[in-house]
UniProtKB/TrEMBL annotation:
It is found in: Cell inner membrane; Periplasm. PROSITE patterns: PROKAR_LIPOPROTEIN. Belongs to the bacterial solute-binding protein SsuA/TauA family. The lineage of its organism: Bacteria, Bacillati, Actinomycetota, Actinomycetes, Kitasatosporales. The keyword Lipid metabolism does not apply. The keyword Transport applies. This is ABC transporter substrate-binding protein. One of its GO terms (cellular component) is plasma membrane. Its main location: membrane. Pfam families: NMT1_2. It comes from Streptomyces rimosus subsp. rimosus (strain ATCC 10970 / DSM 40260 / JCM 4667 / NRRL 2234).
């Protein structure tokens, strides 16, 4: 993390006791590149009279719904003459800023930034309108330095960003194991080093970190570098399910353009069905889109396990969102948030019913 950015984060920590990493000064995402294979032209009547729907996602396999749906044209087909206009982000805080500014309307994002966006706006900026992915997160270690989970003391473990979803998960896990770590600085019995996912494999190879708690495909990249998965986060959750990616929308956009939101959700549900029923084709589409979005396709020894380790889901797994918020509170990164109303699953359940699928639950965190 650059020094200027770190100073800004620490300054924010002194004034706002919320998810600290989500308050850094970040630029907005880059416009996603389009290629002829992955683009379906906007054609037909415009949805809700809109020229475009601006969408954000990450070039991660945990955002497979957005990537595959974009590559295969599912979103564009549902939007008709309204252009599906994606931007690629590297971190949740930047995507939240973009949503708040109107630079994007809908976004695929992790639970911690979604919670922070809801909390800092006092429940006025966004709504979670669907699930997207579960799992796909692992603690990968250098097996020469760390043999078991009892060998973490004195080691340096990377997470993608201060206060992000994996950072919260690691801090909570270390606390449960009795390790003392200052959540802001990352210093303590274990050093938590915040490192961008694209840099983590290099740091791992060079030996400046001993392990990393990271999402896919970064986890599989580290394994390809000689790392070993010491803990799959699925093992820490009931039935191995926990939310890693949500779909969020600007409340203003939801109110003004519900037909466009419904079209995006219809495409999301159809994409998840496609991924589950056509895994080989979906994996290929995912890797093609990753090549377009990030500039490089993943080799088989990375894309295969990364795709296999991530489960797409329409269910937002709302009960696990509350648990993740509780983890952030225990880690000292968040004051206990009031999450009531963060979900609006009305349109999603409408789409699911039309597709002959069961409704999903908001765990009591929907609007009254």
């Amino acid at each position: 993390m650059p020094a200027v950015r770190r100073r800004r984060l620490l300054a924010a920590a002194a004034t706002v006791p919320l998810l600290l990493g989500a308050l850094g000064a970040c630029g907005y995402g880059s416009r996603a590149k389009q290629d002829s294979q992955g683009t379906v032209a906007a054609k037909g009547p415009k949805t809700d009279g809109l020229d475009q729907v601006k969408v954000g996602y990450f070039a991660n396999t945990t955002h497979a719904t957005a990537l595959v749906g974009d590559q295969k044209g599912f979103f564009q087909k549902e939007l008709g003459g309204t252009k599906f206009a994606p931007s690629v982000f590297n971190a949740g805080p930047a995507e939240i800023e973009a949503l708040n500014s109107g630079a994007i309307d809908i976004g695929w994002i992790g639970p911690s930034p979604a919670i922070n966006g809801w909390t800092t706006s006092k429940g006025k900026s966004l709504k979670i309108i669907s699930g997207s992915a579960s799992g796909g997160v692992s603690l990968v270690v250098n097996p020469k330095k760390i043999k078991s989970l009892d060998d973490l003391k004195g080691r340096t473990i990377a997470t993608p960003q201060l206060g992000n979803t994996q950072d919260v998960a690691l801090l909570n896990y270390l606390a449960e194991k009795g390790y003392k770590v200052d959540a802001t600085t990352g210093k303590g019995d274990v050093t938590v080093q915040r490192t961008e996912n694209k840099v983590t494999p290099v740091a791992f190879r060079q030996g400046s970190i001993d392990a990393a708690w990271v999402p896919e495909p970064t986890a599989s990249k580290l394994v390809a570098e000689g790392g070993k998965v010491l803990l799959d986060e699925k093992k820490l959750w009931k039935d191995g399910k926990f939310v890693i990616t949500n779909v969020i929308v600007s409340q203003k956009f939801l109110k003004e353009h519900p037909k466009a939101v419904e079209a995006v959700l219809r495409a999301s549900v159809k994409t998840n069905t496609y991924i589950r029923t056509h895994p080989a084709e979906a994996k290929r589409a995912l890797n093609d889109k990753l090549a377009t979005a990030s500039g490089k396709a993943l080799p088989p020894d990375v894309i295969d396990p990364a795709f296999r380790n991530t489960d797409v889901t329409d269910d937002p797994l709302a009960a696990t969102l509350q648990q993740e918020a509780d983890h952030a509170v225990r880690a000292g990164l968040l004051k206990k948030p009031a999450l009531k109303g963060i979900y609006d699953l009305t349109l999603l359940n409408k789409v699911l019913k039309a597709e002959g699928k069961p409704a999903v639950d908001d765990a009591g965190l929907g609007a009254e």
